[in-house]
Amino acid sequence: MTAGLACGSATAQPSTVPSATQPSAVAADSPVPASISSTQALTNARPSADGSVLTGAAPGSPRALTVTVHSAAMNVPIRLEVLPAPDRSRPAPTVYLLNGIDGGADGNWINRTDIAHFFADKQVTVVVPFGGASSYFTDWRTDDPALGRQRWTTFLTEELPPIIDSGFDGDGRNAIIGISMAGTSVFQLALAAPGLYQAIGSYSGCARTSDPPGQLIVDAVVGGGRGNTVNMWGPPTDPAWAANDPYLHADRLRGTAIYVSTGTGLPGPLDTLDGPGIRSSPAKLADQILVGGALETGAVRCARDLRTRLTELAVPATFDMRPTGTHSWGYWQEDLHRSWPVFARALGL
């Protein structure tokens, strides 16, 4: 982060955000095994009320298990990367990390950040779901010809938590963090399941979905996966758009710790040839500055609107508004580091 970072809370109180270490493009951990074996997870996990069940677990990335959960709502297997809490002698909260528009197919929390190292000494279980590209992790009203059946709200709020809590000794406390598209979803999920999440984090997301600019963003994200938003929330005038707009229902977020971060789209300290993920490629750098800059310009507009809205409602929140920075993983890793004290407090750590 730059020294000129501007940050504050929605109630006009200054936030305290620690400095972050310089991120690497990919975590450089040695192959340390997970603290819970695949056999233990399979033995302990209990099905959810609708019959969703953990069907597979095997050693995955460093400190992680690759877990498969069959979702009854979507009738498909969902892959998860799970980093169990380090101390097996006591229960632990769960932190869910949602990937962006591609559902983790290319860039994701595992291969683009240092979460295996960062969470190694923190008593939390970390869950990274894969899939849901261009879905907004919401429950679609009808199956889509391109994207199929999307019931992600049901999966993430009803099916998955009891499976994770039983399989990995969860204590019932949860936080959820999302980047980009999922930075919208975290608000919607918290509104759909009051009390499930003690804290939510939105990095470069947009909490407005039903005003004209918000609808344009949603259309672009869903259309990027060849999906049709009519199958998600109906035509633009359908009340479902407003029902799924966190900005309009922000008063219902009271009592949940909220962390929102964004850059401005201007090139920052990580937008260089030796920056995370660039690998000295001028083409990658140009894409990050031009496309990533444009995307972040939209995100900062949304963040400013949400900050004003929460201030008007006197709903506490922490806003980390960087003066520079693009829509890219290097900044999201820093956001995770900087926001962690907010999540630790909310989870009782």
Name of the CATH class: Alpha Beta
**Describe the biggest sheet?**
10 strands, mixed
Our count of helices gives 10
- The CATH homologous superfamily name equals Alpha/Beta hydrolase fold, catalytic domain
Return the CATH topology: Rossmann fold
The count of β-strands is 10
Amount of beta strand: 15-25%
Find the structural class using helix and strand composition: alpha/beta
> Could you spell the SSE succession in H and E letters?
EHEEEEHHEHEHEHHHEHEH
- CATH architecture annotation: 3-Layer(aba) Sandwich
Helix content: 25-40%
Calculate the mean pLDDT score and round it. 90
Question: What's the alpha carbon Rg, rounded to whole Å?
Answer: 19 Å
Number of domains: 1
> Residue ranges: pLDDT <50 for 5 or more in a row?
1-31
For the termini, the CA-CA separation is 25 Å
As laid out across the biggest beta sheet, the strand order is: 1-10-9-8-7-5-6-4-3-2
Shape: globular
Pfam families: Esterase
InterPro entries: AB_hydrolase_fold, Esterase-like, Mycobacterial_A85_antigen
GO molecular function, one term: acyltransferase activity, transferring groups other than amino-acyl groups
Biased composition (Polar residues): 10-22
